[in-house]
Amino acid sequence: MVKYRQIFQKIIDFIYPPVCPLCHTGVSIHGEFCADCWTAINWIDGPHCARCGYPFISGYDFDDDVLCPVCAAGKNELDWIRSACVYDDASKQIMLPFKHVGKIKYARAMANAMIWALRDVDVSNIDIVMPVPLAWRRLFHRGYNQATLLARPIAHAMGVNIDYDSVRRKYRANMGHKTAAQRAKNIQGVFRVVRPDKIRGKHILLVDDVMTSGATFAELRRVLMRAGAASVSGVSFCRVVHAL
Hints:
five-stranded parallel beta sheet, 2 domains, single chain, alpha/beta
């Protein structure tokens, strides 16, 4: 079976040569950025918070277990969070078209970057990869759940199941341009666990495209833990970063 897959992949590569999803420069394999586009993105690859992955100022020597002020104050309830890059002008060129304009061809490269972002955490106990659910109204309007497109290759790489249907989400107005407090209030009560039998006792990894304030992850974690989950962690492609 593996041999046939390799042959099929070679045929696909011949018909559709792998290119960078941003600039279409030729690359060695599907789902990777070219060197120039990779360099333009502000990847989180330096010292960062041991719990939430918040990037620290480069050039300083931090211990591997140091926490950011938010996590040190106990305000981050997830076991850990990781993000591949900072949400800025460069990453917007990927994230916004992927999320709002149907550029789903970016999904593989984004997911590969997110898998790379998990390099310093232990994922051996993860049982379920769960894309953050979309409300049916927004799913119908957009046509796809961008978090699901990212979660599939991550779950495949980890060799675990992906859970699409254990949690439902109510429709709420878009949270763009809201403060952290407004986001936390707006997200309250939007998630409902409908399959607690699939959640109970499981270690769950949440997947989303961007983390702004962390309110979505926090609320989803709350309902999952109440349904009996053993632990909840999270990974996103990019995250908003403010000066500490």
